[in-house]
Amino acid sequence: MTAPNSGYDIEGIKKKALIWTIVGFLCGGIIAGVFGLLGYLKADDEPQTAQKFTKIAMIITIIVIVLYVIIGIIYAILIGAAVSSGM
């Protein structure tokens, strides 16, 4: 029999982990999705570890999205420069 995890909102942890799993796989890549999935799977037994995995998934996903935006801006600037120079 497992001891109750007092002080932790297990359902909240699982919901947050599931959201970041989906967002991680769609926007952050496989690594972010796997960390979110690990957070979801560990929520019942080790809620503190689950929160850490979910936070790692969140950070990786945010970093990847920011990199996508930066690359998009650089791409737009280079295309604009190429068009204005008559290439």
Task: Explain what you see.
- This protein has 87 residues and is an all-alpha fold.
- It contains three helices and no strands.
- It has helices spanning 10-28, 30-42, 47-84.
- Helix 1 (10-28) packs antiparallel against helix 2 (30-42), helix 1 (10-28) runs parallel beside helix 3 (47-84) and helix 2 packs antiparallel against helix 3 (47-84).
- The N and C termini lie far apart (71 Å).
Secondary-structure content class: mainly alpha
Kindly provide the radius of gyration, computed on alpha-carbon positions and rounded to a whole number of angstroms. Answer: 19 Å
The low-pLDDT segments are none
N-C termini distance = 71 Å
Summarize the main sheet: none
Tell me the strand percentage band: under 5%
Can you tell me the overall shape?
rod-shaped
Order of helices and strands: HHH
- Counted by DSSP, the helix tally is 3
**DSSP summary, beta strand count:** 0
Let me know the average pLDDT.
90
What helical percentage do the residues reach?
over 70%
Summarize the structure.
80% of the residues lie in helices and 0% in strands.
Summarize the topology.
Blueprint lengths: L9 H19 L1 H13 L4 H38 L3
Helix pairs in contact: 1-2, 1-3, 2-3
